[in-house]
């Protein structure tokens, strides 16, 4: 019966992830976003570890650790510094107003669940029911990238999407082969590094990270 | 063993050049590394010619007729581009658009980029394929923004975000693929090996693979530049340094398409219908038509040829979507021809823009007066890319269009329109650039145009005569791609 | 060497031309070498090619496979009677033109001249390959090689914006036509790369697909032949090219389109439908009338000739349509007659149009003027050019005993024979068609009188014309060759028709019976119709001489010179002669429906009165302009998708993803 | 064959000699109808003879083309006279040129005359040439269509065969020939520069067509041209006769019918000339730009004739 208890905890964490995604959709301040992102990473790491422990998939510990290291510690720290350095902790005005975004988000969640339903039927994992949530997280992150006008928020959205993917991997098939996980993690790390460079470049060129300065290249 | 050389040299080169910095001879070293890579690739190719498909490193690397010619092509174009970039970048530096630090960045990430693409081509693991595709993107993001102009930064940013999001979809597709695979192949590394997957593709779960393919197509398709996912492409090509544009549109698009094709093979096997083919045909046609009409309104020469890349990628995708030995053969041939021709064009364009000091086509005039070699290079390259025989691009278009008329007549009006519009647009813009009078002085330095004419010579040769072994590769690859 | 078949010779000559092209590129420094050596050598090749063509007419078809091309599809070559006659045409016309060119290009500077030699010989080789190709790929490669090289020839003088525009338009329409041909071959091919013509001959198509193939071929080849409404490039491109090139394009290149149409319709397609013929006749006659009317209102001599080429193509196409009708109706003999007529006309046109173009070339060369309003009286300053051109003028005006008349005669005979047809409505239509042909022929005479009269006769309209120098010897030689062709083809039609017999046998498995003998032409039967040009010619000459010497003998031959009659108005000057516009004015008035006229008339007190009458092609305004606008509008719409905001781009990706997910459920 | 040759030469010479007579006769009739004192019947001969005796005056720039045109013109008309069956029906020459060639022959003469007119480069020469060509480009196809109607009936474009069919086969009424006849009359007025298209006796340069072309000619050249013009009128009349009232022309190889044929010819010519004179007197010369409409009508009538042939006689 304790398996089912783990399961409940995992489902809880999954729900938490979804919740956090929605929170990110509605969050207006950059620092708040970063915090939420850190929490999401934490939830992800926790659930991964839990799955690893409950199913004896040891390589999942590795990925849990990676997640913890990267997405809970390194990146939030990095982002905090960035926000302080570039002091961009202002209101992030959204393209759409929050309620509309929320409505769309709910629609997406429903869609994602329907999409995941047939697949999770045939999944052999204990955590199959959470696949839909993972997909929902991915789509919500996508939506967030669309609705935010600041470069940094887009990046956070991007990383949130990554989280969703990891979660999907864990819940659908107890994670990817370790090599791949490593590679992905490496890519994410490099990516964030590159982004850091970018922010400074953008900052010094446009003295703002607002994307509305970056709409010059178009068909006129 | 050659495979390790092929992958190792560029990586080593990247690290070394990063360390070496832009001291004297850095460009030469860059070219040298590329040459070494080319040599290794040649050796590998020889081996494949001799022994047929091989699996190296207990299944981690797999080289068959499909990717070996892409490896050879990539190494070759990488080398010629390195040759071209040597004088080009020096002039950029003289014009004060670049400094040592950026050149160091350029040289090292150039090698890394090449290495990543070669890895993507040779790996047997769909996951590693994804990883190296992402790595290739990351390596080029900073190259696109090399000039640090607002425009280039914006382009790089769009490139990064759009491709990043796209590639994330591809990762989801890969996860689904793994999810479907591990039930048959068991969990662990081998479940993502393409060869294993290919072996059991009939047993893979159709619904999952269908879903997976959608994500993979949207993901890698973004990097291929299929409309409407193409929006990053013209910006990145237009704002990056010309050598980067050349390798981006000449090589990276091919590699992305290669990834799509590898997945398509599996999906076709699993689904047993031509859903994937139809999707690709749809994307292909849309890209061809949209690109053709967008070319019409370009004023920036590099941007225009970027759109022409979208058009040709669309053609290739359409051909692969049609399937069948002839169409797939045509698609592979067109991949080769397009990367050779398009990179040649970018070389010529690069020198032309350097001379005119702008990329605006209205202010580039009478190249044939100021520098006949550039002028003729651009003219012949344009004629070639527009599919005029005896250049090889025509050979593939011939096969595609006739097959399309035979298999899918409904598509031909779109093709006819698109090709007509694209021809009118591109040629109508290039002709005044090449011909006519100008008051610009002759180019101070002697451009390195050997690559241009080497490429065009190859394209011409392949239009009239395709070596038997090359033809055999194409045939085997076409059979592999569901011929 | 001795046992080499005509085909071996043919592709040998093609190779030889390619080598000459390379050589042309090689001697970028030595202009004399190009004109003094390369062009004469090329001319020799052309002469040999003519011989090869004639041999190919006589001998059975030969096959050959070149080891180049696509992997599964090496170049198949074939030389049969049809290719033979067109190769002969190509060789014969190209010989004259190339000899002419050897003199004409002497004044060019070395660099452009070398390029010109390159493209010129590539052009010749391309046209020959088109005629030899026996599979779709080889055909298309040759076809586009021909188009491309001729494009570079047209834009030889690319500093002039108009010429660039002309070249662009030409290449564009040529390319669209080529794609249509690709689609046509796509219909004909058997899938899995069965692209050889042999396969296509054996394949059986349903009438629907056969019609599709025919229409595509008609479009593709029509675009090259200058079929209305695809003709717009022709009056721009032909005048833009250097005159020998215009001569080749008008004289030979247009015929390759006719060749292709015949090849596809009668050789590759295994079914012919009567309505194809009706369509072809309708289009052909429209083209003929349209062309000749516009020729009549031109004031630039090369444009005038270009339009007249459109007219002749139209007549040839009408003949083609009639052939299809007869053949589809099972009247092999009559089909043979029409086919002979149209082939004959193709050959004739090659000769006289080539002659006229090089004639204008000499005028252009020595005066630098193309506008007829600034020419005149040249017969006194450049007699060789003028008199040789006169032959071409009389020939193209369809006057006996020259060659233009023979083919028109044959064609009209064919029209007269239609009552045999089973379709009643065709019986009704054909006479009207015949009337239209007759009208076009008569108008051609009008056009030619205008052309010759304004350019060569009367008073020079500008002073510098008095110093115009006559053509040099190579030019004279080339023109004389072409003129001789016009005369001989006119005098000995029976012989020529004998030569053409294998073609009709090949395509229609039927030959034209000539009931006459070597000097009398009598198709079908001497009872029906006969024409003996030699007798005709001799009688006219005899009577002329008899009367001439008779008059001299019986009366004194005294002659005084005096000023011409000025009807009491002393200030007669050259500007009072009819200008080109003036000569065109009645036609412009009668056929004003075809064209939009723009004219500037001077006010009475103008010191330097200038008159400009310009007749714009309505097809351009009604068909092409709207298309251009539509494309521009569409591309503007497409451009709005691409408006820079990354959010929108993300939405595109997102929407695509969602759409596909929903779509594939 | 020899008989044929004799006939051929005889007929040709006869035509050449009789041609001015017809011209004279027409002028006489016109004079009578207009109530003038008529010139003698032989007036044209006198004019020609007078002209031959004069010294030729050439413009300074007149070239060989200008000088040779009259001879070519004359030769063409003579050949035409040899081809058209006037009195006899088997003519060795006629296979050399059928009706289409005949039209070509007229065109040849016309083009040479027009070119000659433009050679000197006076305002009126070019004006005449242009008008002449303008009229002919409608008249020529109309004439061709008239011939086509006839040859559709007789399944041949050989004049002798046509005449044979129309005259010596069993008598049939061909409605199509009625149309053809009207068209032929309209065309021949234009081709022979008669009223209502042109006025042979005008002296106002601006209204001239034919006369404007030959304005520069004098003496022997002019004489030849006048003669050729007369000959042309004769040939056209002969054509009209051959096509529409062919009875009386001697069939092949029957010399006995010859005298009768000559009489018939003379009778028909008298009637025809008179008729032409009457028509000319009744109608007035029309403005130049009405001429295309007039000839267009002729053209349409001829085509209509062919169509009626298909409707009623096929």
Automatic annotation (TrEMBL), chain A:
Keywords annotated in UniProt: Cell membrane, Lyase, Membrane, Transmembrane, Transmembrane helix
Topology term for the membrane: Multi-pass membrane protein
InterPro entries: HyfE-like
GO function terms (MF aspect): lyase activity
Compartments reported by the entry: Cell membrane
Positions of transmembrane segments: 6-25, 32-54, 60-83, 95-117, 129-146, 158-176, 182-202
Gene Ontology cellular component annotations, sorted alphabetically: plasma membrane
Designated name of the protein: Formate hydrogenlyase
Automatic annotation (TrEMBL), chain B:
Transmembrane segments: 6-22, 29-49, 61-84, 105-122, 128-147, 159-181, 208-229, 241-260, 275-295, 315-333, 374-398, 410-428, 448-466
Subcellular location: Cell membrane; Membrane
Keyword ATP-binding in record: no
Organism: Parasulfuritortus cantonensis
Annotated GO CC locations: plasma membrane
Family matches, as Pfam families: Proton_antipo_M
Keywords (A to Z) from UniProt: Cell membrane, Membrane, Oxidoreductase, Transmembrane, Transmembrane helix
Topology class, membrane: Multi-pass membrane protein
Lineage: Bacteria, Pseudomonadati, Pseudomonadota, Betaproteobacteria, Nitrosomonadales
Identification of the protein by name: Hydrogenase 4 subunit F
Annotated GO biological process: ATP synthesis coupled electron transport
PANTHER family, A to Z: HYDROGENASE-4 COMPONENT F (PTHR42682:SF5)
From TrEMBL, chain C:
A GO CC annotation given for this chain: plasma membrane
Coiled-coil residues: none
Keywords: Cell membrane, Membrane, Oxidoreductase, Transmembrane, Transmembrane helix
GO biological process: ATP synthesis coupled electron transport
Membrane topology per record: Multi-pass membrane protein
Name listed for the protein in its UniProt record: Hydrogenase 4 subunit B
Subcellular location: Cell membrane; Membrane
Pfam name, any one: Proton_antipo_M
Keyword Transmembrane included in the entry's annotation: yes
InterPro entries: ComplexI-like_HydComp, NADH_UbQ_OxRdtase, ND/Mrp_TM
Domain NADH:quinone oxidoreductase/Mrp antiporter transmembrane: 133-416
Native organism: Parasulfuritortus cantonensis
Predominant place of localization: membrane
Ranges that cross the membrane: 6-25, 37-61, 81-101, 113-131, 137-154, 166-188, 208-233, 245-262, 274-297, 304-328, 334-364, 384-405, 425-458, 479-501, 530-551, 619-640, 646-664
Keyword Transmembrane belongs to the record: yes
A GO MF term: oxidoreductase activity
UniProtKB/TrEMBL annotation, chain D:
Molecular function GO terms recorded: lyase activity
Sorted UniProt keywords: Lyase, Membrane, Transmembrane, Transmembrane helix
Coiled coil location: none
Topology within the bilayer: Multi-pass membrane protein
Chief site of localization: membrane
Location(s), subcellular: Membrane
One Pfam family per UniProt: NADHdh
Residue spans crossing the bilayer: 6-26, 68-88, 100-121, 133-153, 173-190, 229-249, 255-279, 291-312
GO cellular component labels: plasma membrane
PANTHER family in the cross-refs: FORMATE HYDROGENLYASE SUBUNIT 4, FORMATE HYDROGENLYASE SUBUNIT 4-RELATED
Protein name: Formate hydrogenlyase
């Amino acid at each position: 019966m304790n398996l089912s208890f783990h399961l409940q905890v995992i489902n809880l964490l999954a729900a938490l992830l979804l919740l956090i995604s929605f929170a990110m959709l509605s969050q207006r301040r950059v620092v708040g976003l970063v915090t939420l992102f850190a929490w999401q990473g934490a939830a992800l790491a926790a659930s991964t570890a839990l799955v690893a422990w409950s199913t004896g998939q040891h390589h999942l510990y590795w990925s849990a650790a990676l997640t913890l290291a990267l997405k809970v510690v390194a990146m939030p720290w990095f982002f905090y510094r960035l926000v302080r350095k570039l002091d961009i902790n202002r209101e992030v005005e959204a393209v759409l107003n929050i309620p509309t975004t929320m409505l769309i988000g709910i629609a997406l969640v429903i869609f994602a669940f329907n999409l995941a339903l047939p697949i999770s039927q045939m999944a052999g994992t204990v955590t199959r029911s959470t696949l839909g949530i993972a997909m929902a997280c991915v789509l919500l992150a996508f939506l967030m990238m669309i609705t935010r006008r600041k470069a940094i928020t887009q990046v956070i959205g991007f990383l949130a999407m990554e989280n969703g993917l990891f979660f999907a991997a864990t819940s659908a098939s107890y994670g990817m082969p370790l090599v791949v996980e490593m590679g992905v993690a490496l890519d994410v790390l490099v990516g964030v590094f590159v982004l850091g460079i970018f922010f400074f470049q953008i900052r010094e060129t446009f003295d703002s990270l607002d994307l509305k300065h970056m709409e010059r290249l178009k068909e006129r | 063993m050659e495979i390790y050389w092929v992958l190792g040299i560029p990586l080593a080169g990247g690290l070394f050049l990063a360390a070496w910095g832009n001291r004297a001879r850095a460009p030469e070293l860059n070219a040298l590394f590329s040459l070494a890579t080319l040599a290794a690739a040649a050796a590998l190719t020889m081996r494949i010619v001799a022994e047929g498909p091989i699996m190296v490193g207990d299944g981690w690397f797999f080289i068959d007729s499909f990717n070996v010619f892409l490896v050879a092509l990539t190494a070759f174009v990488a080398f010629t581009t390195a040759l071209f970039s040597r004088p080009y970048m020096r002039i950029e530096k003289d014009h004060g658009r670049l400094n040592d630090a950026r050149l160091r960045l350029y040289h090292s990430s150039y090698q890394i980029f090449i290495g990543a693409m070669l890895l993507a081509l040779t790996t047997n693991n769909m996951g590693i394929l994804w990883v190296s595709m992402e790595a290739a993107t990351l390596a080029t993001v900073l190259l696109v923004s090399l000039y640090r102009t607002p425009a280039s930064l914006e382009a790089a940013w769009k490139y990064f975000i759009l491709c990043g999001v796209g590639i994330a979809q591809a990762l989801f597709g890969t996860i689904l693929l793994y999810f479907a695979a591990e039930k048959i192949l068991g969990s662990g590394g081998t479940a993502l090996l393409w060869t294993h997957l290919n072996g059991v593709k009939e047993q893979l779960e159709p619904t999952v693979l269908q879903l997976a393919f959608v994500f993979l197509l949207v993901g890698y398709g973004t990097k291929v530049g299929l409309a409407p996912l193409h929006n990053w492409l013209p910006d990145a090509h237009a704002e990056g340094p010309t050598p980067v544009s050349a390798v981006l549109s000449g090589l990276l698009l091919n590699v992305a398409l290669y990834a799509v094709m590898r997945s398509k093979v599996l999906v076709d096997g699993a689904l047993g219908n031509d859903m994937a083919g139809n999707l690709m045909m749809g994307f292909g046609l849309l890209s061809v038509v949209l690109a053709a009409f967008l070319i019409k309104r370009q004023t920036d020469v590099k941007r225009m040829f970027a759109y022409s890349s979208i058009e040709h990628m669309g053609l290739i995708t359409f051909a692969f979507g049609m399937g069948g030995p002839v169409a797939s053969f045509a698609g592979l041939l067109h991949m080769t021809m397009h990367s050779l021709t398009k990179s040649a064009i970018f070389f010529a364009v690069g020198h032309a823009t350097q001379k005119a000091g702008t990329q605006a086509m209205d202010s580039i005039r009478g190249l044939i007066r100021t520098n006949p070699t550039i002028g003729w290079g651009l003219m012949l390259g344009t004629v070639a890319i527009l599919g005029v025989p005896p250049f090889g691009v025509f050979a593939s278009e011939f096969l595609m269009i006739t097959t399309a008329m035979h298999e899918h007549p409904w598509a031909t009006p779109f093709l006819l329109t698109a090709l007509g519009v694209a021809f009118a647009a591109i040629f109508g813009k290039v002709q005044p650039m090449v011909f006519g009078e100008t008051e610009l002085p002759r180019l101070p330095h002697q451009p390195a145009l050997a690559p241009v004419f080497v490429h065009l010579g190859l394209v011409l040769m392949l239009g009239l005569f395709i070596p038997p072994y090359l033809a055999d590769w194409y045939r085997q690859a076409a059979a592999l791609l569901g011929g | 060497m001795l046992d080499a078949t005509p085909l071996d010779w043919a592709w040998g000559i093609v190779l030889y031309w390619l080598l000459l092209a390379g050589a042309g590129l090689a001697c970028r420094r030595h202009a004399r070498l190009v004109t003094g050596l390369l062009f004469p050598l090329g001319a020799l090749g052309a002469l040999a090619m003519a011989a090869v063509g004639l041999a190919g007419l006589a001998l059975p078809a030969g096959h050959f496979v070149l080891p180049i091309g696509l992997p599964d599809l090496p170049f198949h070559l074939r030389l049969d009677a049809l290719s033979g006659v067109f190769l002969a045409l190509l060789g014969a016309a190209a010989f004259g033109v190339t000899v002419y060119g050897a003199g004409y290009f002497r004044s060019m500077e070395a660099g452009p001249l070398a390029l010109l030699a390159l493209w010129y010989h590539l052009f010749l080789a391309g046209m020959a390959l088109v005629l030899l190709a026996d599979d779709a790929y080889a055909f298309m490669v040759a076809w586009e090689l021909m188009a491309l090289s001729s494009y570079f020839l047209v834009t030889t003088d690319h500093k002039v914006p108009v010429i660039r525009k002309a070249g662009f338009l030409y290449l564009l329409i040529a390319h669209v036509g080529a794609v249509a041909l690709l689609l046509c071959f796509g219909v004909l091919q058997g899938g899995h790369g069965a692209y050889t013509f042999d396969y296509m001959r054996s394949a059986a198509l349903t009438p629907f697909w056969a019609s599709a193939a025919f229409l595509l071929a008609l479009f593709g080849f029509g675009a090259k032949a200058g079929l209305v409404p695809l003709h717009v490039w022709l009056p721009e491109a032909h005048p833009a090219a250097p005159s020998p090139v215009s001569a080749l394009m008008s004289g030979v290149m247009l015929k390759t389109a006719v060749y292709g149409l015949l090849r596809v319709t009668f050789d590759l397609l295994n079914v012919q439908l009567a309505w194809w013929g009706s369509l072809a006749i309708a289009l052909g006659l429209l083209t003929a009338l349209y062309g000749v009317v516009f020729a009549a209102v031109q004031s630039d001599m090369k444009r005038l000739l270009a339009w007249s080429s459109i007219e002749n193509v139209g007549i040839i196409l009408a003949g083609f349509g009639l052939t299809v009708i007869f053949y589809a109706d099972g009247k092999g003999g009559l089909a043979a007659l029409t086919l002979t007529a149209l082939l004959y006309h193709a050959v004739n046109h090659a000769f006289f149009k080539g002659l006229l173009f090089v004639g204008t070339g000499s005028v252009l060369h020595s005066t630098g003027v193309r506008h007829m309003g600034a020419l005149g009286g040249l017969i006194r300053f450049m007699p060789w050019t003028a008199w040789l051109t006169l032959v071409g003028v009389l020939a193209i005006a369809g006057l006996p005993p020259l060659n233009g008349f023979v083919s028109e005669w044959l064609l009209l005979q064919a029209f007269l024979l239609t009552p045999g047809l089973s379709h009643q409505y065709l019986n009704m239509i054909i006479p009207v068609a015949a009337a239209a042909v007759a009208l076009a022929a008569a108008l051609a005479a009008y056009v030619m009188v205008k052309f010759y009269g304004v350019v060569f006769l009367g008073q020079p309209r500008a002073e510098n014309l008095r110093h115009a120098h006559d053509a040099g010897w190579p030019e004279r030689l080339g023109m004389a060759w072409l003129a001789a062709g016009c005369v001989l083809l006119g005098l000995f039609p029976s012989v020529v028709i004998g030569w053409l017999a294998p073609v009709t046998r090949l395509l229609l498995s039927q030959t034209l019976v000539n009931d006459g003998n070597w000097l009398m032409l009598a198709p079908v039967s001497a009872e029906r119709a006969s024409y003996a040009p030699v007798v005709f010619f001799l009688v006219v000459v005899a009577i002329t001489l008899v009367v001439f010497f008779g008059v001299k003998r019986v009366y004194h031959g005294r002659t005084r010179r005096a000023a011409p009659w000025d009807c009491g108005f002393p200030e007669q000057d050259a500007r009072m002669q009819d200008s080109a516009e003036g000569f065109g004015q009645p036609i412009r008035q009668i056929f004003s429906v075809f064209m939009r006229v723009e004219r500037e008339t001077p006010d009475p007190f103008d010191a330097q009165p200038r008159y400009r009458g310009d007749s714009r092609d309505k097809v351009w305004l009604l068909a092409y302009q709207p298309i251009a606008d539509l494309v521009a509008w569409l591309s503007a719409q497409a451009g709005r998708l691409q408006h820079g905001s990354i959010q929108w781009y993300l939405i595109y990706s997102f929407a695509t993803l969602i759409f596909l997910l929903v779509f594939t459920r | 064959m020899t008989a044929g040759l004799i006939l051929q030469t005889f007929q040709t010479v006869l035509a050449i000699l009789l041609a001015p007579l017809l011209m004279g006769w027409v002028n006489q009739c016109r004079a009578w109808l207009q109530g003038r004192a008529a010139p003698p019947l032989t007036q044209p001969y006198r004019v020609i003879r007078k002209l031959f005796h004069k010294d030729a005056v050439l413009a300074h720039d007149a070239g060989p083309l200008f000088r040779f045109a009259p001879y070519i013109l004359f030769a063409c008309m003579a050949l035409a006279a040899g081809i058209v069956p006037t009195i006899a029906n088997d003519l060795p020459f006629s296979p050399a040129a059928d009706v289409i060639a005949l039209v070509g022959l007229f065109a040849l003469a016309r083009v040479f005359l027009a070119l000659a007119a433009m050679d000197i480069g006076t305002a009126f020469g070019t004006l005449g040439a242009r008008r002449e060509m303008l009229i002919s480009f409608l008249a020529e196809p109309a004439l061709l269509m008239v011939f086509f109607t006839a040859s559709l009936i007789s399944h041949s474009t050989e004049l002798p065969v046509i005449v044979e069919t129309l005259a010596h086969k069993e008598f049939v009424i061909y409605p199509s020939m009625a149309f053809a006849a009207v068209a032929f009359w309209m065309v021949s007025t234009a081709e022979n520069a008669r009223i209502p298209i042109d006025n042979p006796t005008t002296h106002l340069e601006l209204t001239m067509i034919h006369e404007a072309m030959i304005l520069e000619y004098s003496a022997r050249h002019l004489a030849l041209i006048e003669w050729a013009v007369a000959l042309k009128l004769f040939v056209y009349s002969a054509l009209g006769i051959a096509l529409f009232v062919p009875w009386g022309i001697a069939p092949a190889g029957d010399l006995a019918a010859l005298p009768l044929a000559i009489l018939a010819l003379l009778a028909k010519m008298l009637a025809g000339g008179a008729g032409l004179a009457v028509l000319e007197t009744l109608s007035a010369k029309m403005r130049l730009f009405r001429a295309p409409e007039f000839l267009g009508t002729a053209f349409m009538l001829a085509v209509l004739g062919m169509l009626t042939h298909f409707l009623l006689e096929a």
